[in-house]
Structure formats: C-alpha cells, structure tokens
Design goal:
Non-ribosomal Peptide Synthetase Peptidyl Carrier Protein, Chain A, 15% strand, two-stranded antiparallel ribbon, alpha/beta, 9-stranded parallel β-sheet, 333 residues, 11 strands, TIM Barrel
C-alpha cells in the first residue's frame, strides 16, 4: 500500500522540494523516530521531530538532545524547538544544526499547560513582538537552513491573530508557516476554522500549510479547497494509521479512494511499528510506549475495548504478537 513512485514537485520551501502534499505533524509523545520512518515510507512529504525544549538543550539535557536525532529513513525532516527567549532559542537552533535538520520549526501552537505556563508554545500568540524577536534570532543563526513556524488560529475566539503573527514571522525571515485552525482554549474541540487559514494564505507570499481534522483524502481535499493552502499537515489522523498518507496522496492525485487495509495488514504494520520502537528505545521502554500505539491500531476492530485492555498490560513483543495473532485468526478479511 506504499504510495506511487514520487516524481512531481508539489511544493518548495526555499531550497527544499517536496513531491507529495501531506506532511506529518510533530506529535509530542507520539511521532517518534519509528513513527516518522513509517509515515515517510507511506508517502509523507516530510516529518518533524517531537518538540525539544530550548532551555533543556542549553542545559545539556540528554532527552532534549535525543529528540533532535534524525535518521536517513525519516528525511526530509525538521527539528521543532520551543521556548520563550530569543537568546535561548538562538543557542538551541545553533545546537540543532549539529543534527543536520532539513529545516528548523518554531512551536507557537502547543496548548498544554506545562508549555504555555512558561510563556512558550501557544503563549507566544499573546506576545507577537516577542514571537517576532524569536523568529529573527533563529533565522539569523541558522543561515541557509529554512525556518518555519507552527501556530494556532489564536489564543481564544476573541483574539484570533494568526494573520498578524504570520505576517510578523514572514517579515522576520520565516520560509513557511503551518496554521492549526483551532485556538489554544479550543484545544482539539470542533470546529476547525478554515477561514483563518484562508486569511493567512491570502496575506502571505510564503507557503502556508493547513492543519486540523484531516483523517482521509476527502477531509484533506476539503481543507485544501476551503483554504487554498499549499500543503496539508496530518496529526492525530496518523495515529495507528501511517498508511493515511498514501490514502490522502492517492485521493489528491486523481481521486482514487484507497480502502482501509485488512485487519491482517493492520496487525502486520503494528508489529513492524513496535519492533522499530524497541530497536530505537530498547525493549523495556519500547514495549511500554508501544501500548498506546497498539491501542490506536485496533481502533474500530470488533472487540477493540477488550483488546485495548489486554494491550495496556503487555510486557513483551511476544505478548503483543500473540494478541495480534488472535485478532487476525478470529476474523476473515
């Protein structure tokens, strides 16, 4: 079910060329190396590492450093940084260059309390001047490496200022922006505001990437049509479904609707995914992190609640493989 051979250039961000129109969002705690490699294999235009703390990087935190590691099988790939200080972000970008990212992404959209309480993430939408200073510092530090920004529509419904912030980012050298069509207060609740993404697109000269509630080809096409954006970014729609990129790309290419894979194929991909997690993180950590991924893979399968309960307690890859075997053997695809 891998996407067709890549040939057509769909988007350019400075010197970077992308040959599909759907990218993987930097999902914290989810889009690790294993998931990014899988999604690139299924046709994601690029991937973005889980957000890394500028403060943690400056203090030599090992976890923050690990979040910036990029393998050859997940490229093109960017490193996403978050912070509230132009100086700290500049130093973090400098260190990020050691990992040879294809681009640097600045997080101005993370809604979680721990991040926004520090003045980073979506909090920067409340302080456009500081956001501009951070962008300028990072752009000046990384030279020819493209810098992008991911933001939300605003802090709340009364302060939807994505257009203003996007213009400031462009003026300070950003090469592209991604707009998630929800406010910080909205978190992940519906509806997604296509209008604000469209306004940002109409206001900028640089590429605009749309994000929010994309789960298949039709929802991706709707976002493109409603906003006129240059590319789609998929987040939660890829959880337990890395093949969603091949589905979206096929639909956008010629309207082909690729079906969901058979249960046997879903289980095969799940086992491959978990094996990758264990290879990168070791069996002890890998299996524990695999529990949530496995739960997403069985979503929608008959008896999913029963299997999720069992998957939440697995202690080894063999246990996971046994559950996958039972799921497949009890169904005829």
């Amino acid at each position: 079910m891998l996407f067709r051979e890549r040939q057509v250039i769909c988007l350019r961000i400075k010197s970077l060329e992308f040959d599909t129109m759907t990218a993987l969002a930097p999902l914290a705690g989810v889009a690790d190396t294993a998931m990014r490699e899988l999604c690139i294999g299924y046709g994601a235009a690029f991937s973005v590492c889980e957000m890394a703390s500028a403060k943690g990087i400056s203090l030599g935190d090992k976890k923050s450093a690990n979040l910036m590691t990029i393998t050859k099988n997940e490229r093109p790939a960017g490193i996403q940084l978050f912070g509230n200080s132009p100086c700290a972000m500049r130093l973090a970008a400098q260190k990020a260059l050691q990992y040879s990212p294809d681009f640097i992404d600045i997080n101005m959209g993370c809604p979680v309390p721990k991040v926004v309480s520090s003045g980073a993430g979506a909090s920067l939408m409340k302080n456009p001047a500081l956001a501009g200073s951070i962008v300028k510092a990072v752009v000046q530090e990384v030279g020819d490496v493209p810098v992008t920004v991911k933001m939300r529509s605003g802090w709340n419904d009364e302060t939807k200022n994505a257009v203003l912030l996007a213009r400031i980012c462009q003026e300070n050298g950003v090469a592209a922006v991604t707009v998630h069509g929800r406010t910080r207060e909205q978190m992940f609740a519906l509806p997604v505001d296509y209008g604000i993404i469209r306004e940002v697109k109409q206001s900028l000269d640089i590429p605009v990437i749309g994000n929010g509630e994309v789960f298949d080809g039709k929802s991706a096409a709707k976002l493109l049509y409603e906003t006129g954006c240059d590319m789609i970014m998929v987040g939660r729609g890829a959880m337990g479904r890395p093949w969603v990129f091949s589905q979206i790309n096929a639909y956008l290419h010629d309207g082909t609707v690729l079906p969901e894979p058979a249960v046997s194929e879903r289980m095969r991909v799940m086992l491959r995914h978990v094996k990758k997690i264990c290879e990168y993180k070791g069996d002890f950590i890998g299996i524990r992190e695999a529990r949530k991924h496995a739960a997403w893979y069985v979503k929608g399968i008959r008896g999913a609640a029963f299997y999720r309960a069992k998957l939440s307690q697995i202690e080894s890859f063999d246990e996971l493989a046994e559950i996958a075997f039972h799921i497949v053997s009890e169904r005829s695809d």
